[in-house]
Write a structure and sequence with these properties.
By secondary structure, the protein is mostly helical. It is built from one helix and no strands. The chain starts with a helix and ends in a 13-residue tail after the last helix.
């Protein structure tokens, strides 16, 4: 009987220890699960932040491209205006040169030598 009592006591203690060990294992498993879940939440938040940053960068690229196109357009228009002004000045120069030659010819025909003075002839 004493052996049966010791055996029964050993079985009870063994089952108790085994059950306690299983609870500890399930506790550590649930702890790991919570850690993994927390890490997943953090990673999802980081991913969301990265995606938002990517979208912001894409928007900035589009804005920069629009600005570059506007600058190119503006500079092209400015170049066209400058070329037109230069062409107008060239025409004015040609007209003034022709008028200058015409006036020189008139002076020569009148017998006055054009020496580049303003018309003051002091002896």
């Amino acid at each position: 009987m004493r052996q049966w009592a010791c055996l029964a006591m050993g079985v009870v203690i063994g089952v108790s220890l085994w059950t306690a060990g299983c609870e500890e294992s399930s506790t550590s498993t649930s702890r790991r699960a919570r850690l993994v879940a927390d890490e997943n939440l953090q990673l999802k938040q980081q991913l969301k932040a990265c995606r938002a940053e990517v979208e912001e960068q894409k928007r900035m690229v589009v804005d920069a491209q629009k600005q570059a196109e506007q600058i190119a357009s503006d500079s092209g228009e400015a170049n066209i205006k400058l070329l037109k002004a230069l062409a107008d000045m060239g025409k004015q120069l040609e007209a003034m040169s022709a008028e200058n030659e015409r006036l020189k010819a008139q002076l020569k025909a009148a017998g006055i030598q054009g020496d580049g003075n303003t018309g003051d002839s002091t002896p």
